[in-house]
């Protein structure tokens, strides 16, 4: 891959994740403090990305693979998304806000697969080049957090307006990306392929079934962090919280670089258990922080373990799926894994986080009992550690499971 192409793809990934980072972290505070939505409604709003993750792969996979060039579909979806984001910024009632947000997240989440496909289509050495390009996603997210904090958009509709502007730039820029024609033109489409049902035969293996079930279950507690942490930071009077929360993305990069080293020593099972332990520790730190507000280092330490939480569950999970699935069903299995985790698991978790958050809202609705809230996902994560450790059989990591070192 030439340096020029590398930079072009870098900018694509940067913009794509910048759009998401401008509103996803801070939306909870805006909905709670400004629009006065109830906890259950905030949970449903965060679950909109899960709906997008479940619906968009079918649409994008069929359309992008068979009818339209990838860069044109990516650009069109972001232009539509820009209009929807601006419209979202004007809506005040949940009945109007929620369906429009769902429409937007379907258009946006399809972009994950499209940016991946476009990058891989133009990579000469995907194992080395793809991770380097995708690392710009973390940079985009960090830049978005800084922008939202410095522009004072953390509790107002400005976050969606900024996202709309970035989506407009991304949409127009996408049309300048290298031409990536559809690869599946003329190939018949079956309902079984569309739904990824070919991957279900792997569920007959106890370890794979355990992995998938536990992957779904771990996404339930982890949703609490994404939907509630900015609200918690606001009530703790942490200034420019969106900017400070981007330390999680710095952590992403650090722990991703450590993954090859740890994988050789701990194996797949050890890495996945380490990720579950990290989630338990993170929620425990947040619960303790609520009791010791002067010990703000507990909050920052909870942010710092994000890379271990995310990389060692999601990245390791994708690698495990890729290694266990045969080539003919690999794409279907990855889609099934995404549906179970980013889709079903995150939707249930987002909804439950809203319910729990509402239950532990203090009188007046302005503050929460955060210790009780964070203990719920902490206990759930801790239980999963033992279930997974007993039922999952580890296999020595093969070369296919080891991430390429950059």
Give the helix/strand layout.
Elements: H1 3-21, H2 27-34, H3 39-46, H4 48-66, H5 70-88, H6 94-121, H7 126-134, H8 136-150, H9 158-174, H10 191-194, H11 206-235, H12 241-245, H13 247-291, H14 297-304, H15 306-324, H16 330-359, H17 370-391
Helix pairs in contact: 1-6, 1-8, 1-9, 2-11, 3-16, 4-6, 4-16, 5-6, 5-9, 8-13, 11-16, 11-17, 13-14, 13-15, 13-17, 15-16
What features would you describe in this structure?
The chain folds into 2 domains: 1-179, MFS general substrate transporter like domains (Growth Hormone, Chain: A); 195-406, Up-down Bundle (Growth Hormone, Chain: A). The chain starts with a helix and ends in a 15-residue tail after the last helix. The protein is mainly α and 406 residues long. The protein is globular, with a radius of gyration of 20 Å. Mean pLDDT is 86; it is low at 396-406. 75% of the residues lie in helices and 0% in strands.
Q: What level of helicity do the residues show?
A: over 70%
CATH H level, superfamily name of the largest domain: MFS general substrate transporter like domains
Query: Strand percentage, roughly?
Result: under 5%
Radius of gyration: 20 Å
Given as residue ranges, the uncertain stretches (5+ residues, pLDDT < 50) are 396-406
How are helices and strands ordered from N to C?
HHHHHHHHHHHHHHHHH
Quick one: biggest sheet? none
Number of discrete helical segments: 17
How far apart are the first and last residues' alpha carbons, in Å? 14 Å
What is the CATH architecture assignment of the largest domain?
Answer: Up-down Bundle
Q: Please give the number of β-strands.
A: 0
The global form is globular
The overall number of domains is 2
CATH level 1 name of the largest domain: Mainly Alpha
